[in-house]
Amino acid sequence: MKIFLAIVFSWWSVLAVAQEVEPDWEQEGEIDDAEVVIEKEREISLPTASRRFEPIPPIATTRPTTNITYQFQEVTPTLPGLNPQVRPLKIKNPPLDKLYGNYLKLGLGTFITPYAELFANSTRDNEYSYGLRLQHESSRLGPVDGANSGNSDSRIGISGKYFASGHTFRARAEYQRERYHFYGYSPLVEPEPERDSIRQIFNAIAVSGGIARAEVDAPLNYDVEAKFIHLSDDYQASENQIELHLKTNYIIAPRLEIGLESDLYLMQRRDQNPETRAENTLSRNLVRVRPYLTYRTSIGAGEGLTVKGGFTVAHENDTASNADRLHVYPYALATLHFSDAFQVYAGIDGNIEATSLYSFTRENPYLEADVPLLHTNRNFTFRGGAKGRINSLFGFHAGFSANNYKNLYFYANSARDSTRFTVLYDPDNVFELNLFGEISLNSTEQFRSSLRADVYTYSVENLDEPWHRPGFTLSWLNSLNLYEKILLNAELQYMSGVQGLNLASGTTRQLDPIADLHFQADYLFSNRFSAFVKVRNIFAQNYERFMNYPSRGIMFLGGITYSF
Question: How many whole angstroms separate alpha carbon 347 and alpha carbon 207?
Fold first, then answer.
């Protein structure tokens, strides 16, 4: 700082001397050289400052002695009520696909086979449903002498259901007309029989109605049905049949319930004796009642052990020499659920199995007039098996049943006319053992397949063989859906071990195995229009289900389907 002040002071002195000389700008001359010398001779020094370490004392303060009091006042505000107007966001339901409850199917096949089918059904409704069905299929030509082995099947039926609160009312009526010919004669017969002389026509009317209650939380559920069946043929035979069926169960506790199954059959058959031409009338009645008790060790479905036990009481008036009017059978069934996907079962029971002219003609339409009618007494059955699913695709069912019968029926060619069949009964004990196995494959709606095989063995006492009953059967069903455009269905039926008896000639014959493969393909052009092709008996075998009655060979049928 001292050095700086000295320099400034020197510069000021020079400037002051310079100002005393008045410049003469108009005079000419030169500036004399001068030299300024600044000498620093003084040394500035400051004394050493002393350091103080004493802390600064705090400032004394005086605290107030006045007490502060607080006063709290509760304030309750009054607000107007809120009434918000909330409008929830509504999501529109996706539109349902339109259903076409009606469709018409028309086709034509080999052997001069027209085919027509009409369905008219209601669509979506929460209160009722109804339907109308018309169907006709006939083949003018057959495997023996052309039109002499033709057949036809025509049906018309209506049905309806009404859904009330907790109940379902149903009704159904159907008329069916079937035409067959007794073509089981030798091809060497001369002259060839006239077609009308060997014709058989069945007219059947079936009317039924019922009411069912099946609620999840209701302790009492039941199903009651009444049915009337009338059958007549081309040979003055007729049968009227009234049936009443009842199924009910009542839940006493979550694991305990009681139930009742009951059936009533009232039948009257009129027929003409083929030898005397006299008219015969036969009334046949059957009543069956089965009370039972069911106990479950677990409340959950598909868990634990379920035991069902009771007895069956049956009363019938068949006039066979060994037929008791009153029958009592034990009834028990136990099912053990290891999981939802696997269970085993075993049980014993017995019953009277109702037979009628109507049921016989459904199996064999080539019966002679005035065939004997007897109910079958299944006096003991022991059955067992296991069923379940390996995964979501594969399922299985395997088991057996051992049965003891009285009055089990069989078919044989009649002694009066070998082109027609009579019914034979074994009045003594007939033992039947059935072993079966079934596997299924279900891949949602794309592919389904099920295969079932049954093995039968019989021990008869009054007959030489179990005539016209198979020893082995196999059924294989398949369906495939390709891209919702092509629908494929295939069905294979195999049967072997059938023995035939001709009472007119006394000859017996083991019929050839039956291998019948059916195939159908549908192509959907749209949701309303499609075309189909059916191929029957692809192996082209003229097999015989009943002796002397060969079937048609390979048969083709094609047509269209229209929905509206």
Answer: 34
